[in-house]
Write a structure and sequence with these properties.
Structural class: mainly alpha
Order of helices and strands: HHHEHHEEH
Distance between the termini: 33 Å
Helix content: 55-70%
Shape: globular
Radius of gyration: 18 Å
CATH superfamily: Winged helix-like DNA-binding domain superfamily/Winged helix DNA-binding domain
Number of helices: 6
Number of strands: 3
Number of domains: 1
Strand order of the largest sheet: 1-3-2
CATH class: Mainly Alpha
């Protein structure tokens, strides 16, 4: 079974959710390549430190030492997570003299992160 067919079949068997979810039109069929790329992108966001970095960069652009100070983790760990986010196209780094200042490529993914955090904070 293809990824697209599996997703469509799972959609047909899902129970309606309670709550204030809007009724949506059927989702358009997506190519397997699109679904795989979306999964890769979500995996790039799926680490607490990377979520915290995205939240920090949503407020303003930051250099590595600003992120180290704000998040209380080591510089090598911040750099490692920034590499993952940069590779996934979530952040970009602009060199300013000896420092690289990181910012979000756009706010689309930040909204996903904020919504996920808000959802968790709302509780069950």
């Amino acid at each position: 079974m293809s990824i697209v067919a599996g997703a469509e079949q799972a959609e047909q068997h899902d129970e309606p959710h309670s709550g204030s979810h809007r009724t949506a039109a059927p989702a358009p069929a997506r190519t397997p390549a699109t679904l795989i790329a979306a999964g890769d992108l979500l995996r790039a966001l799926a680490a607490p430190v990377r979520i915290a970095i995205v939240l920090q960069l949503l407020e303003s652009s930051r250099c590595v030492h600003d992120l180290v100070d704000a998040l209380g983790v080591t510089q090598p760990l911040i750099s490692q997570h920034l590499r993952v986010l940069k590779s996934a196209g979530v952040v970009r780094g602009d060199r300013h003299g000896r420092e690289v200042v990181y910012s979000l490529v756009d706010d689309h993914l930040a909204h996903i992160v904020v919504d996920a955090v808000d959802h968790v904070e709302e509780g069950p």
